[in-house]
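Q: Second attempt. The first request was missing the SMILES, so the protein and zinc ion are both included now.
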Amino acid sequence: MSGAAAGLAVAAVLPPAAGGPSSVAETFIWAGVCAGAALLPDIDLPQSTIARTFGPISHVAAHGINKASAMFYNVTASGRDGHRSNGHRTLTHTVLFAFGLGIVISSLVTAFAKPAIIATLFVTLGLAIRGLAGDWARKHGPIMTTAVTGLLSTLAWTSIPPATGSTSLGLAITTGCLVHYLGDAITKDGVPLLAPLVPINGRRWHAINPPALVCIRANGLVEKIAILPALTLTTVALAAAALPTTHTG
Ligand SMILES: [Zn+2]
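A: Got both inputs this time. The predicted holo structure:
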């Protein structure tokens, strides 16, 4: 939900020349991609929602990414970081990953256009459905969810104006990843945001977390009765605001 809210908020202020959406349809696609991308960093955790999204394919991918991330961590870690065999909350939880993935997606869209756009929409909108309508997805099973994702991706693709800049999808993905880090940082043990580029206290993988005052417990009361309703209201308000103020291309 935070990815959807952030996607709508950023889409509202970002000019099309800088990769922002240029129509109402594109604004909602942008927010959907952002909402899906907000789940993406946990592809390094085989037990996560995202690892279950595309059945055995995403599960095997999650195992591989967990191991590859641990390897990347061990290669780049300083002596004070220590060794790790579990790569969760390492490489895919860094600013380097958020911007790197955004640049990769934008480059793929520039190089391959249609197939790259459809593949990006299929994966991120599939994740967005799991994240925003998890109960519905569980009830109807993976085949139905995949069919709806395919339909949504096709509809979304036909709604994107041909002139859409290649930076747009990449930027929505970067925004979603950054929102994920923020959520992890206030609910868990911090995120190694600047790793491995900027060493902090002699450690390349120093986890950054905000002051204890702003930290909340994951799935706790504050999240359920305050944060989720507030984010839902914000998303609905921003979605409503996107309708009359944005001009269709
Ligand atoms: Zn995470």
